[in-house]
Write a structure and sequence with these properties.
There is one protein chain. This protein is of the alpha+beta class and about 100 residues long. It has one domain. The protein is built from two helices and two strands. The chain has a two-stranded antiparallel ribbon. Strand 1 and strand 2 form a beta hairpin. The radius of gyration is 20 Å and the shape is rod-shaped. The model has no long low-confidence stretch (mean pLDDT about 80).
Length: about 100
């Protein structure tokens, strides 16, 4: 039974890690206030890539659910950090470009 739980958890984690359910995406937009083109990151999700829990029961299902929640949490923290850091850099860049445009 423990081997089945372990194998189920490993397969679920491998599937989720390779799918990147939550990810950052770069978006270009025009800032009308400054009159410059800027960039920003946004968090996207692709819930269709999430593995389903159709064929599990008992402890295997609990282990699989906890594993999926753990990996999703890690993906969210990593992607959120990338978005936050990237947007900070793009904000500073936009402020510089806006300042140069108005001078």
């Amino acid at each position: 039974m423990k081997k089945m739980i372990k194998n189920t958890l490993i397969c679920s984690l491998a599937t989720l890690l390779s799918s990147c359910v939550v990810y950052p995406e770069k978006v270009h937009y025009f800032d009308k206030d400054c009159g410059v083109e800027s960039k920003k990151y946004v968090l996207k999700n692709d819930l269709d890539k999430m593995p389903t829990l159709n064929q599990c029961s008992g402890q295997a299902c609990i282990a699989q659910t906890l594993g999926l929640m753990g990996i999703l949490s890690v993906e969210l923290v990593v992607s959120g950090t990338i978005v936050l850091a990237g947007n900070t850099v793009y904000w500073v860049e936009k402020q510089q470009n806006c300042k140069e445009k108005t001078e």
